[in-house]
Amino acid sequence: MASNLQNKSPLTREFPLEFLQSITNNFSEDRIIGEGGFAVVYKGVLDNGEEIALKKLTHTGTEDTKFADEFNNIVRARHQNIVQYVGYCYHPGRWIEHNQQYVFGHEPTRILCFEYLHGGDLGRHLSAEEQPCGLDWQTCYKIIRGVCAGLKYLHSVDIYHLDLKPANILLDNNMMPKIGDFGISRVLPSSKTITTKPGTLIGTMGFMPPEYIDKQEISSKYDMFSLGAILIQIMAGRKNYCDCGSVPSENFIDLVCEIWRKKVHPAMWSHTWKEVKACIRIALRCLEYDRHKRPTIREVVDELNRIDIEDIVDELDRIDIDISSVRDEVLLLT
């Protein structure tokens, strides 16, 4: 079965329901690896040993539209920082017994299959207190860069994620971040702002921008607010994220830099502080109440690229100084 499926493109890779039942022990509770408001996620193992995650939608009725929307978005999103789509299953219904007669019950089973990531989600590494992410800075910076790269790609193909949060950032064995869960994502032109129906807020509180909460407005700056919330929680902890709005920006930047100065080895701090300061400044700009003051994801990635280039230049200068010192010492000895 697995070898036949591997020969198909992800778009056409349809898994039979019976096969997915067999690799999850009929969707048993001990195979559950995650749950949300619209789906349960199970772990399955293909015949060739490949592990996959199966997102099984739990609601009926209008959820057919949700399934189709998510399917259409994920098959378009192919990037190293996006969770890789593997295949799908749509089973229209089944015969059920009712009043001693069999009737066809419209109970469709909808499943989306993805690569399984062993590193879990980013949320497990974050602190609820005034502490930053438990990972070292270089790993945190790698995660920040990867999330920004994935979001830049999504916006370049006009996909708004609309539910960016630590639980939806998954990590592989090398701590490479991948954005997942496109359940409420939308495809919209980057310049367009839409307004949803009043009273229909969908998403996660704490990661929704004020214009969506107050006026149900969705634009590309929705995801930027969510990104800012994620960065603050990585760098300062969840409690400091809740308090950052009441602290002057420069004071908050100094607070975060001091937190990381104590965590980073002194020999590394001379260039690490640039990355820390740049990331916290970006985070605060992303959290601006006025969405027009928030940066675009392209601007964020460009700024991080400039920091990386400066780091390389500084390192080359240091190497040049070291070489010059060695050369001078050699000349003195001759």
Describe this entry's structure for a reader:
This is non-specific serine/threonine protein kinase. Its EC number is 2.7.11.1. Pfam families: Pkinase. This protein is α+β, with helices and mostly antiparallel strands and about 325 residues long. The protein has 2 domains: about 1-115, Phosphorylase Kinase, domain 1, CATH 3.30.200; about 120-315, Orthogonal Bundle (Transferase(Phosphotransferase), domain 1). It is about 45% helix and about 15% strand. The protein contains 9 helices and 13 strands. The chain has helices spanning about 1-5, 15-25, 65-75, 135-155, 210-215, 220-245, 250-265, 265-285, 295-334; strands spanning about 30-35, 40-45, 50-55, 85-90, 95-100, 100-105, 110-115, 160, 170, 175-180, 185, 195, 215-220. α4 runs antiparallel to α6 and α8 (about 265-285) runs antiparallel to α9.
